[in-house]
Structures are given as C-alpha cells and as structure tokens.
Amino acid sequence: MSRIKTHVKKGDNVVVISGAHKGAQGVIIEVQPGKGRVLIEGVRMIKKAVRPTQERPQGGIIEKEGPVHISNVKLAEAPKPKAARKSAKKKVAKSS
C-alpha cells in the first residue's frame, strides 16, 4: 500500500482558494488522501439527519463539516518568526 503525498496535513491553517467557500480560512481536522479531500474546521457546514442512539435518544439533525477537494486549499500565510539567534562573526586576532 503506497502513501499518497499531500501538500497539507492535519492541524495546518489553510485558506480555500476556489469554489463556493472561496476565502474561508480554518484548521484542517482530517485529511483523506485516498479521496483527495480535507475537512476544515467551520468550512462547508452540512446538515445530516441522524437516527436515535443511546448517546442521542431523540436523533435529529446535526451540523458537521463537509469535505473540500484538496486542490482547492493552500497553506495560510503565517507571520514569519524573528531569527532566534544571529550568526556569530569570527574575531580576527591582530598580529603585530
């Protein structure tokens, strides 16, 4: 079984660049590389009817994130961190 390489991973902050949700920004909840889709927190919210269960005795309609094609997202620009340390210059000993 080969792994499919993707340009984003779970936890990345991304922006939707095309489609109905263009401009939406969020954090990736799940990557589905086999299907070529990602779930982004708060983007493409869909309604789903659920049957009654022990955890949800009345059933009902829930809202959850729907998948977005992976080609429609890109990494969001993060503020660049300042340099942690500066390069040290060699001191040249003067010989007299």
Description:
This protein has 96 residues and is mainly β. The protein is built from no helices and seven strands. The protein has strands at residues 13-16, 25-32, 37-40, 45-50, 60-65, 67-69, 73-75. The strands form two sheets. It has a five-stranded antiparallel β-sheet, with no helix packed on it. β1 and β2 form a beta hairpin. The radius of gyration is 23 Å and the shape is elongated. The relative contact order is 0.24. The model has no long low-confidence stretch (mean pLDDT 89).
Q: Name the strands of the widest sheet in spatial order.
A: 6-3-2-1-7
Helix content: under 10%
Total number of helical segments?
Answer: 0
- Nearest-angstrom radius of gyration? 23 Å
Q: So, CATH architecture of the domain at 13-75? A: Roll
The helix/strand order is: EEEEEEE
Oligomer: single chain
The low-confidence runs, each spanning 5 or more residues with pLDDT under 50, are: none
Overall structural class, as computed from helix and strand content, comes to mainly beta
Kindly report the CATH topology of the domain at 13-75: SH3 type barrels
Distance, first to last CA: 69 Å
Please give a quick description of this structure:
By secondary structure, this protein is an all-beta fold. The chain has a five-stranded antiparallel beta sheet, with no helix packed on it. The protein has a two-stranded antiparallel sheet with strand order 4-5. A hairpin with an 8-residue loop joins strand 1 and strand 2.
